Amino acid sequence: MKQMFIRAVTLMTAALIVLAAAVPSAGIAADSAADETVLAYKDIPVDDFEVSELSPDTDTCLDYVRWWYSEWEDCRYIFLPSTADRSSLMVNYIADEEISLSGVTLVSGEMTSLLGEADEFDITVGDTDCGKLRIMQSQLGCIYISTDHMGLDRLDRNRALTETGMIVALNAEGGTEYSGRFEKLSAHGNSSWDYSKKKSPIT
């Protein structure tokens, strides 16, 4: 009888140890699953979306931006400089079907006032929900850069490379601070190289 009691206590202790070990693991697994963000709108049927005529009073062909996808918010942004007139912007895009913003169809290659009517839009391509587009406009000056070769992504991947190209720098009022060529755009940083923001000196 004594041996049966000891065996029962031993089995119960073992069961409690297993249960105690399993509960935190299940909690950690649940937390990990909750932390995994589902990016529902990362891949949408749009190959390119560009907004131009951002500095209409400046003689330049560099005044355009492409929309930017934020993985943190699973949405897209257009960042406009202070010189942009949101009631008169050119939109060009490449998509499987026509793009609509909050139910209003955008015609690629035409001027539109739509981007001045709200700061956030629902994107649809045909009947496909493609998430949100948010418009943000700075009150500061801006710099437009056009590289001669493969763009800034190339520099971000290899800090040994350099790039040349054209640059236009405008102040907040739209006045031209500099317009011309640059001879060297390079990546910079050692310990900071793996940060999301990279320093790129221009000479």
Structural overview:
The chain has 203 residues and is α+β, with helices and mostly antiparallel strands. The chain has 2 helices and 13 strands. The strands form 3 sheets. It has a 6-stranded mixed sheet, with no helix packed on it. Strands 2-1-5-8 form a 4-stranded antiparallel sheet, with no helix packed on it. The longest helix has 34 residues, at 2-35. The radius of gyration is 27 Å and the shape is globular.
What is the strand tally?
A: 13
Helix content: 10-25%
Radius of gyration: 27 Å
Q: So what's the overall shape?
A: globular
Distance between the termini: 90 Å
Provide a brief overview of the structure.
This protein is of the alpha+beta class. The protein contains 2 helices and 13 strands.
SSE blueprint and pairings:
Blueprint: H1 2-35, E1 46-52, E2 64-66, E3 68-70, E4 75-80, E5 89-95, E6 99-101, E7 104-106, E8 110-112, E9 120-125, E10 128-137, E11 142-147, H2 152-157, E12 162-170, E13 176-186
Parallel strand pairs: 4-10
Antiparallel strand pairs: 1-2, 1-5, 3-4, 5-8, 6-7, 6-9, 9-10, 11-12, 12-13
